[in-house]
Amino acid sequence: MSNNSPLIYGGHDDGRRSVRSAMWRGMKKRCPQCGKGHIFKSYTKVKDQCDECGLVLSGHEADDGPPYFTMLIAGHLIIPLMLEWKRHFHPPIGLQLLVSLTLLGLAIWWLLPVTKGALIGVQWANRMHGFSDHHDDDVEASLRAEEPLR
After folding, report:
1. Which of 115, 121, 130, 141 is most buried (CB neighbours < 10 A)?
2. What beta strand segments (E) does 56-131 contain?
3. What is the DSSP string of 67-86?
4. For residue 1, is it within any domain?
5. Which InterPro entries match (predicted)?
6. Over the stretch 53-67, which tens digit does the pLDDT of each residue have?
7. Which residues, listed in sequence order, are joined to residue 30 by a DSSP beta bridge?
């Protein structure tokens, strides 16, 4: 590959993929490769492949990462706000619970697909969990294939 290779979506022509762009596309719930197709067919159910570029998305393994990051971010945003609200205005406990649980629920509802999309983008950019260019390059798949059946 020459050093003058043009910049393309997903990194440079030499095989590097931009983690930043892939994460950003995932956070916008778009395909990490082309940035055009949607990656979700419902709230957090991932499509089998991108409608625009054909990227197979079924190999992702987000697992428990998105809920963890969602709770971490939402908790760090909402709890300090609620503590300041309590300190300055002294609302009744019922109102505190109503407002804080509503805000926390809305933040989690909005953030969960965003963090899942970002994690799928990171996995694609790093060629993890079935996102490698060649099946031979997928180290994790080759390790799983070598495990003896019990």
Report:
1. 121
2. none
3. HHHHHHHHHHHHHHHHHHHH
4. no
5. DUF983, Znf_TFIIB
6. 989 998 888 889 999
7. 38
Return mean pLDDT, the chain.
84
Question: Is 129 part of a structural domain of the chain?
Answer: yes
pLDDT band at 149 (very low <50, low <70, confident <90, very high): low
pTM, whole model, 2 decimals?
0.77
**Mean pLDDT in residue range 2-22:** 60
Q: Which residues of 66-104 are buried (b: 16+ CB within 10 A; e: fewer)?
A: bbebbbeebeeebeeebeebeeeeeeeeeeeeeebeebb
Contacts for 73 with CB less than 8 Å, ≥ 6 apart: 107, 111, 115
Polymer length of the chain = 150
Domain residue limits at 62: 7-145
pLDDT at position 5: 43
Residue 138 lies in a domain: yes
For residue 34, count other CB atoms closer than 10 A to its CB.
16
Residue 63: C-alpha distances to residues 16, 29, 75, 103, 129 (Å): 25, 17, 20, 25, 11
Q: The tokens 């694609």 sit on which residue?
A: 124
Number of domains in the chain: 1
